[in-house]
Design brief:
five-stranded mixed sheet; 168 residues; Nucleotidyltransferase, domain 5; 27% strand; alpha/beta
Length: 168
Amino acid sequence: MRNLIFVDCEAAGPSVVSGVLAEFGAVHYGTRRTFHGRLFECTPDPANPAVPVVGARVAEDADVARAFADWLQDVAGGERVAFVSDNPAFDWQWIAALFDRGGIGNPFGHSARRIGDFWAGTRRDFFARQSWKDWRRTAHDHNPVHDALGNAEAFERILQELRGPESS
């Protein structure tokens, strides 16, 4: 469990083909160390906070990708990392594209894990995929570091629930 990396992306557009990754946050599950990758200035859209209003570029893709890869190497001690997200179908594509544009191999490989699927499996109900979000302690405010941290906190609570009351 120590090299689970919880990631959240703030991006505008439907995909990496026609959209833009504004910023992302990552949390190392074992230590709660964080990384904030900022490519553009952005703020949540008041009409739909899940979509950022993207401003001026603040960093180049290759620089942010290299800094993120170095951070992953450091927090994982050179061991393999696993990408975990609320919605990896969305988040993973942006990170994979960032590494690709930066000319760096993706440290996560070609896979990711979805918290909601893990939770649904513990409930033995394929459609029980959202209630775990109630266990976030850090507010989900579309700051990607906060959102990734809240997801790691909720995941920790899921694991406590699985261990039973004696583990609390």
